[in-house]
Structures are given as structure tokens and as C-alpha cells.
Amino acid sequence: MMKNILLIFVFLLVWTSNIKCDEDVTSCVGEDVNDLPDTCLSIDTRPLRIIGDVEDSVLQSKLKMITKITSGVEVTETEIETFDFLPNVIILTSNEGPALKFHRNKKLARMQFPKLEQLKGKEEAILFDHDQFPTLATQNKKGLADLVRLREVAKKTAGSEGKVTCNNFLKVIKNEPPQGSNDTVLWVLCAIFSCIILACLLSYAYEKWCKAKKDKDVEKKKDTQKKSTKLPVQENPKNK
Length: 240
Fold this sequence. Notes:
Pfam families: Recep_L_domain (PF01030)
Distance between the termini: 138 Å
Strand order of the largest sheet: 1-2-4-7-10
Strand content: 15-25%
Protein name: Receptor L-domain domain-containing protein
Organism: Caenorhabditis brenneri (Nematode worm)
Helix content: 40-55%
Largest sheet: 5 strands, parallel
Low-confidence stretches: 16-23, 176-182
Number of domains: 1
Radius of gyration: 30 Å
Keywords: Membrane, Signal, Transmembrane, Transmembrane helix
Shape: elongated
Number of strands: 12
Order of helices and strands: HEEEHEEEEEEEEHHHEH
């Protein structure tokens, strides 16, 4: 009798300890966000999936602590306008597909990852699959700024030897692409990126030119003043 009681006690002890471990898990396998533990700090093996109507409060409580995702994120058919639910993620990569995949989100116009330092996918870092973001981003300066920021992170991740181009940074799949081109929106975004970068370079060059011109004018003025002080003072003939 005592032996059976002891076995039951040991079984209950092991069972309760396993429950506690599950509650305190910090390294999680990717799954639907609704089934994700609240204590995850990293996600691997399978993508983190956000599908359909999910309450903002659920996304915030489940994702706010995550700092590392190495299996990608998939956001599908949501009503999200600004994706800012991974405020602490530092590493966002995938060896199986894109690091970020957005599919049929009708209102998505912004993406914010304030602490992101690494962004890399198997082929492209970001995939928009029949998603509205590329269209809305071309009408929204802040949305374009978000993409420029992500491109800089992807470029930094690739390092000095890696090249980040429009093709390996993002890919756009549309429902009805225009005849003769399947990547019209992609090239529009690339053209906008190029214009922004060119504008920054021209602005920097103009500032350098203005500074150099100002310094030259100052030096010229100093030289003129020095020459004027060295000239001999001529006496007035009337004073002789």
C-alpha cells in the first residue's frame, strides 16, 4: 500500500514539474500565434504564423518578449494596418524561405522593427504574396521609410562581401501583373529606393561643396586683410 502511494506521489511530482517547465519555456517551435506560449524569447524550426483576425492584445502579449526568430514570420489575411508586434526582435532570418512573408493583407501599410539588426531569407528577405503593402507603401512616405530601413538592415546582415539588390531583398507577387512585366510594383519600389539614395548623396555632396566654398571665401578674405595691412602708408603731398 505504502509502495503504491509512493509511486503515485513520484508520478504527480514529475507531472507537475513538467507543467512548470512548459510554462517557463523560452525557446519555442514556430506555430500559430494563438498556440504560442507567452514566455517565448526565440522561435525556430517552423515559421511563426499570424493568420486571420487576431486581437492586438494577444499579439502583444505573445510576441513582445521575442528577440530571435530563425524560421521566419508569416502574416496572412489579417486586418493589421501597422505591423509593430515584434518590438524587441533583433534577429529575423530563415534558411527555408523569406524571413518575412505577407499574404493577402488588405490594410497593411507599415512595418516597424525598431531593434532589428539582422534580416535575411533563403532567397529574398521579404515576400509580398498578393498583398496590399506594395501598393499602399507607394502612397505612404512612412511605409517607404520602413522599407528603406529594412533594406539597410539586410545590407548590413549581408556584410561587405554580400550584395543586396531589389531581387534578393524583396519579391512581389501580384494577382494580375501588367502585360510584359510580372514585377512592375517591385521595380517601382526599387526606383523609389534609388531616388531616395541619390537624393541623400546629392544633399551630402551639396553640403560638402557649400562648406568648402565657405572655407575658401574665409581664407580669401583673410589673405586680402593680410595684404592690406602690409601695404605702406602713403603720405599726403599736402602735408610735406
